[in-house]
Design a protein that fits this description.
Blueprint (H helix, E strand, L loop, with lengths): L1 H5 L11 H4 L4 H11 L3 H12 L2 E3 L2 E3 L10
Antiparallel strand pairs: 1-2
Helix pairs in contact: 3-4
Length: about 70
């Protein structure tokens, strides 16, 4: 940190992106990804990751928007 200050850096940015990723709608995300990626194998892989069940302790759910706990 001291070296950065000596180089003239004077600002610190602190951002918590974890909560942002919790709110991304999967359908809209895939629409944006599909606009850039045409390889069906890659798209299927991403869809698989998004559809994977989540385990937290003994609780299990399938998210539809980022990380979301079962009700």
């Amino acid at each position: 940190m001291d070296g950065l200050i000596k180089q003239g850096f004077t600002h610190v940015v602190d951002a918590d992106l974890a909560q942002y990723f919790d709110s991304i709608p999967h359908e809209r995300l895939m629409e944006r990804v599909e606009a850039r990626i045409s390889d069906g194998r890659v798209l299927d892989l991403i869809r698989g990751w998004l559809a994977a069940d989540v385990l937290a302790g003994m609780e299990r759910w399938t998210p539809t928007r980022g990380r979301r706990k079962a009700r």
